[in-house]
Amino acid sequence: MTDDDSVLLTVEDGVASITLNQPARGNALDLPLVRGLHHAVRDAAADDRARVVLLSGNGRLFCGGGDLREMQAAPDRGAFVNQLASAAHDAVRALAALEKPVVAAVQGSAAGAGLSLVLLCDLVLATPRTTFVTGYTAVGLTPDCGLSWLLPRAVGLSRALDLTLTSRKVTADEALAMGLVTRVVEEEELLADARGLCAGLARGPAHALGQARALLRSGYAAGFDEQLDREAETIARMAATEATGALIAGFLAR
To answer: Which of 155, 187, 215, 226 has its CA 20 to 30 A from that of 173?
Structure first.
């Protein structure tokens, strides 16, 4: 377990299970959660017992993105979002650098930064009801957590622009077709199938799997840190505007 219960970490049979654990808030990213995620990934990386990482979220949603309620309530919205994005990017960097295979079990929705977390995973299982959405521009924000760097590389620039500019929801079947998802399984079988996949990987050659992951992901790595810094600055600047404040307020009032 991490420093608090926002993120849970257990290691068993070669699998480090990292669980986002704020189900009542849709596992929205706030400072405790992103710091907990960073600590959990760092601990999993250092634990020789952990050969594979399983990332999941408790409750109805995998991750609903950044916590808009906290963002809207902040006295200085831009400063708050800069702090949150910077802390989240520490977790993102750790997850991107992990030299162990990462499997995601995604239920409900992966939105905004939650979609970024999915893109940082190597094998992604979803259910027929799972949806994916960038969401940022709908509330006057811009991508963070690596999404502007990861999404075009995963689905191509044209699709990435479509998903980002329209903020439309992508179904599990469409996500499978465009390569966001590895496999779609029945909802009641999601965690069991993800754990089974992890168990198979954990029985394999861990050193080779980890280095293969590192090689494939490092091929895109040029400029990643610079892009994260650019994202943090841009989303903070957008968050500080009155127009974004109005859009967030309208979203929260639904």
So the answer is: 215
